[in-house]
From TrEMBL:
<feature type="domain" description="4Fe-4S ferredoxin-type">
    <location>
        <begin position="107"/>
        <end position="136"/>
    </location>
</feature>
<dbReference type="InterPro" id="IPR045865">
    <property type="entry name" value="ACT-like_dom_sf"/>
</dbReference>
<keyword id="KW-0408">Iron</keyword>
<dbReference type="InterPro" id="IPR017900">
    <property type="entry name" value="4Fe4S_Fe_S_CS"/>
</dbReference>
<keyword id="KW-0004">4Fe-4S</keyword>
<keyword id="KW-0411">Iron-sulfur</keyword>
<dbReference type="Pfam" id="PF13237">
    <property type="entry name" value="Fer4_10"/>
</dbReference>
<feature type="domain" description="4Fe-4S ferredoxin-type">
    <location>
        <begin position="76"/>
        <end position="105"/>
    </location>
</feature>
<dbReference type="GO" id="GO:0046872">
    <property type="term" value="F:metal ion binding"/>
</dbReference>
<dbReference type="GO" id="GO:0051539">
    <property type="term" value="F:4 iron, 4 sulfur cluster binding"/>
</dbReference>
<dbReference type="InterPro" id="IPR018449">
    <property type="entry name" value="NIL_domain"/>
</dbReference>
<protein>
    <submittedName>
        <fullName>NIL domain-containing protein</fullName>
    </submittedName>
</protein>
<dbReference type="InterPro" id="IPR050572">
    <property type="entry name" value="Fe-S_Ferredoxin"/>
</dbReference>
<dbReference type="InterPro" id="IPR017896">
    <property type="entry name" value="4Fe4S_Fe-S-bd"/>
</dbReference>
<dbReference type="Pfam" id="PF09383">
    <property type="entry name" value="NIL"/>
</dbReference>
<keyword id="KW-0479">Metal-binding</keyword>
Length: 137
């Protein structure tokens, strides 16, 4: 059971060994994909959390809430205005995670938010401004 999450740290929690505790106490495998954190300040961390079961993952996410770390599934952070999209495929050329592809059977863009790693390449590449990525809170 794996998923990508944006973890929101407060100034009080940024210096705590949170990822270590997720690994040690909850048996969660953590892959850091992106970080915007400074000591003594608020920040965000994009991570992939992988657990043996949904119950373990849920317990870890609940623990994060109890210590004041917010979390949200990264799939909820990528917005795509499908109505404005002209299916040019410019964004698919820069999406190395495979979250954005061009279906060659009908030449329509396909967006799989579960594969998104919040790199922002699609935002820069889209000539129509159809993508937005909210990495922060």
């Amino acid at each position: 059971m794996a998923g990508k999450y944006v973890l929101g740290y407060s100034a009080e929690t940024v210096s705590e060994p949170i990822l270590w505790k997720l690994t040690k106490d909850y048996d969660i495998r953590v892959n850091i994909l992106r970080a915007e954190i400074s000591p003594g300040q608020e920040g965000n961390l994009l991570v992939e959390l992988d657990a043996e079961s949904e119950a373990k993952l849920n317990a870890a996410l609940q623990w994060l809430e109890t210590i004041g770390v917010t979390w949200v599934n990264v799939a909820k952070r990528l917005s795509w205005d499908e109505d404005r999209c002209i299916d040019c495929g410019g964004c698919s050329g820069v999406c190395f995670s495979g979250a954005i592809t061009l279906d060659r059977s009908n030449w329509k863009l396909v967006v799989d938010r579960d594969k998104c790693i919040a790199c922002g390449g699609c935002v820069k590449a889209c000539p129509m401004g159809c993508f937005t990525l909210d990495f922060g809170e």
